Amino acid sequence: MTESGEISEFGYIMELLARGKVTIKNIERELICPACKELFTHPLILPCQHSICHKCVKELLLTLDDSFNDVGSDNSNQSSPRLRLPSPSMDKIDRISRPGWKRSSLTPRTTTFPCPGCEHDVDLGERGINGLFRNFTLETIVERYRQAARAATAIMCDLCKPPPQESTKSCMDCSASYCNECFKIYHPWGTVKAQHEYVGPTTNFRPKILMCPEHETERINMYCELCRRPVCHLCKLGGNHSNHRVTTMSSAYKTLKEKLSKDIDYLIGKESQVKSQISELNLLMKETECNGERAKEEAITHFEKLYEILEERKSSVLKAIDTSKKLRLDKFQTQVEEYQGLLENNGLVGYAQEVLKETDQSCFVQTAKQLHLRIQKATESLKSFRPAAQTSFEDYVVNTSKQTELLGELSFFSSGVDVPEINEEQSKMYNNALINWHHPEKDKADSYVLEYRKVNRDEEMLSWNEIEVCGTSKVVSDLESNCNYAFRVRAYKGSICSPCSRELILHTPPAPVFSFLFDEKCGYNNERLLLNLKRDRVESRAGFNLLLAAERIQVGYYTSLDYIIGDVGITKGKHFWAFRVEPYSYLVKVGVASSDKLQEWLHSPRDAVSPRYEQDSGHDSGSEDACFDSQPFTLVTIGMKKFFIPKSATSANEPENRVLPMPTSIGIFLDYDKGRVAFYDMDHMKSLYERQVDCSHTMYPAFALMGSGGIQLEEPITAKYLEYQEDM
């Protein structure tokens, strides 16, 4: 890189800083070494294009090399204790940096280490650290940051006699700082030194010319596009880059500068979007904090329930043990008292001794008989001694092994809740939005939260609206007309929330939906048209009657259109309605017509008046080229799975430009006040054709069929519609 080129590059970055587009205090994050987490000191550019301090690279290499030596020592003497060696001392690093340093036992044998920035392994090759470029641009920005941080600390003149004066300039050629007087003395006018480059006071002096690290006497003058690093001409001629594609330094400088400038301008232009996303992230952080606290509260509740159950069981078990213990002690006490009665002068024996003193034979016999039985029983009990109760409580040992195992496995419901997916085919937009989704673990999710928001064209991000849903579908109402809305859903299991699903963008109709049914009275021909009971579907039954009149075709007989209109008219405002034309339909005309024009069509003889012969009727007539004035009706032709755009004075009349694939669903937008009608592809809410229409009278949705065909009006999306869909 030339001197002027390098200075210009640095000047461009400094210009951004000076203009306030990038403030020094806000870029500190970019000036921190990923290894030592401090400001860069003599940063080097690694092969992965990340920068790291010069001393940090050496420390990493020496640390890895020491670890290698430690492993070797452990393998040779496994009985010796493992010692935790400290980080390599500065003494080792200094020895590596000294000129003439040769490989020794302290030389790092490892040249591959993980980059602290991207954690990918980087190989420094045979030259090691000496093959790395020094990032002078980053080093200069760091120095500028340091100066901004210590603005009160002045840089003193290097040439003044004590006490030194505050410097006002720094010479990049002399690598020294000067006050005004010393600068004049050491850079006199008319000498070579007067041409030296000087800048404001600084302590960072970088070389004016970058030299090749592999060929130290050669200047950098090319850029290797494969390795993405500057090289010299010797590198290209016979070095490692001989077979690589290179470009001139000026070309690389221009290209990279343009890309960087464009990217910076783009980011600066998106500042409002970034701020909006930061606000959204802050809201997500608050939501995460709230959800975390709620999860903690729910966990505490569950554990408290467990504590209550354990306390209840503990009380029950202890009560059972106390009851058994009391019962056993009572039995033992009774047995003790009985045996104490066998002692002399106590109880039964003492009583028997007193009875023996009785001299009256009759009285003695009367009492002694029962007493003798008791003495015999006591004697037998004495011979076969048996405790009245068991002392062991083995039956009352609580077995908690199973419960302990279960409690040891106590965790959340799952490691996470699967992400629900919005079903785009079953989701639709009409008067309301119907959003359907499915979930791999539907039965395991407690509820869902459907989020939606309006997406502005200027990319301004609005806040999300939330609706809690128990099922897997939801009707969203009160949406603005002619707007894009983004929808996404997430699942909840307890306090655990799944990530949001992929967003679905739907466009609302350009106007409120106009609700009507087919009119079964006005102009309805029940011989050729079949209307269902709900009056939202009509089919053409062409066939048998046409065959009966087939012989008349040879004398100019033609098949006429069968009209049917909506049962509600429009007298003001904007309105939108949609319908589906069956794919098998041969010829269908759809659009709008005024009340007086409908009277003319429906009450005139079919063989005398037909829209096929009306000028500018909005369909394929031969006379439309002659007149394009506003008419009280507009109809477009649909048939054979095609949508035919009518001819106009401004559009090309070639057939290939006027025939489009028939949309699955077609919408019509009528602006009565402005006299404008447009036809839409409902799948993409895209306008296919629009024109002026005379709205001086009441306007009606108009339809006409010829041959086999069918039209189905779109059903408004309501809660009942949702229930019907779920039943289906």
From TrEMBL:
<dbReference type="InterPro" id="IPR003879">
    <property type="entry name" value="Butyrophylin_SPRY"/>
</dbReference>
<dbReference type="Pfam" id="PF13445">
    <property type="entry name" value="zf-RING_UBOX"/>
</dbReference>
<keyword id="KW-0206">Cytoskeleton</keyword>
<keyword id="KW-0862">Zinc</keyword>
<dbReference type="InterPro" id="IPR000315">
    <property type="entry name" value="Znf_B-box"/>
</dbReference>
<dbReference type="InterPro" id="IPR017907">
    <property type="entry name" value="Znf_RING_CS"/>
</dbReference>
<keyword id="KW-0968">Cytoplasmic vesicle</keyword>
<keyword id="KW-0963">Cytoplasm</keyword>
<dbReference type="InterPro" id="IPR027370">
    <property type="entry name" value="Znf-RING_euk"/>
</dbReference>
<dbReference type="InterPro" id="IPR013320">
    <property type="entry name" value="ConA-like_dom_sf"/>
</dbReference>
<dbReference type="InterPro" id="IPR013783">
    <property type="entry name" value="Ig-like_fold"/>
</dbReference>
<keyword id="KW-0677">Repeat</keyword>
<keyword id="KW-0833">Ubl conjugation pathway</keyword>
<dbReference type="GO" id="GO:0005856">
    <property type="term" value="C:cytoskeleton"/>
</dbReference>
<dbReference type="Pfam" id="PF00041">
    <property type="entry name" value="fn3"/>
</dbReference>
<dbReference type="InterPro" id="IPR001870">
    <property type="entry name" value="B30.2/SPRY"/>
</dbReference>
<dbReference type="Pfam" id="PF00643">
    <property type="entry name" value="zf-B_box"/>
</dbReference>
<dbReference type="InterPro" id="IPR013083">
    <property type="entry name" value="Znf_RING/FYVE/PHD"/>
</dbReference>
<feature type="domain" description="Fibronectin type-III">
    <location>
        <begin position="419"/>
        <end position="511"/>
    </location>
</feature>
<dbReference type="GO" id="GO:0007051">
    <property type="term" value="P:spindle organization"/>
</dbReference>
<dbReference type="InterPro" id="IPR047066">
    <property type="entry name" value="TRIM36_Bbox1_Zfn"/>
</dbReference>
<keyword id="KW-0479">Metal-binding</keyword>
<dbReference type="InterPro" id="IPR050617">
    <property type="entry name" value="E3_ligase_FN3/SPRY"/>
</dbReference>
<keyword id="KW-0808">Transferase</keyword>
<dbReference type="InterPro" id="IPR003961">
    <property type="entry name" value="FN3_dom"/>
</dbReference>
<feature type="domain" description="B30.2/SPRY">
    <location>
        <begin position="496"/>
        <end position="720"/>
    </location>
</feature>
<comment type="function">
    <text>E3 ubiquitin-protein ligase which mediates ubiquitination and subsequent proteasomal degradation of target proteins. Involved in chromosome segregation and cell cycle regulation. May play a role in the acrosome reaction and fertilization.</text>
</comment>
<dbReference type="InterPro" id="IPR036116">
    <property type="entry name" value="FN3_sf"/>
</dbReference>
<dbReference type="InterPro" id="IPR035727">
    <property type="entry name" value="SPRY/PRY_TRIM36"/>
</dbReference>
<protein>
    <recommendedName>
        <fullName>RING-type E3 ubiquitin transferase</fullName>
        <ecNumber>2.3.2.27</ecNumber>
    </recommendedName>
</protein>
<feature type="domain" description="B box-type">
    <location>
        <begin position="207"/>
        <end position="249"/>
    </location>
</feature>
<dbReference type="GO" id="GO:0008270">
    <property type="term" value="F:zinc ion binding"/>
</dbReference>
<dbReference type="InterPro" id="IPR017903">
    <property type="entry name" value="COS_domain"/>
</dbReference>
<keyword id="KW-0863">Zinc-finger</keyword>
<keyword id="KW-0175">Coiled coil</keyword>
<dbReference type="InterPro" id="IPR047065">
    <property type="entry name" value="TRIM36_Bbox2_Zfn"/>
</dbReference>
<dbReference type="Pfam" id="PF18568">
    <property type="entry name" value="COS"/>
</dbReference>
<dbReference type="InterPro" id="IPR043136">
    <property type="entry name" value="B30.2/SPRY_sf"/>
</dbReference>
<dbReference type="InterPro" id="IPR001841">
    <property type="entry name" value="Znf_RING"/>
</dbReference>
<dbReference type="InterPro" id="IPR040859">
    <property type="entry name" value="Midline-1_COS"/>
</dbReference>
<comment type="similarity">
    <text>Belongs to the TRIM/RBCC family.</text>
</comment>
<feature type="domain" description="COS">
    <location>
        <begin position="356"/>
        <end position="413"/>
    </location>
</feature>
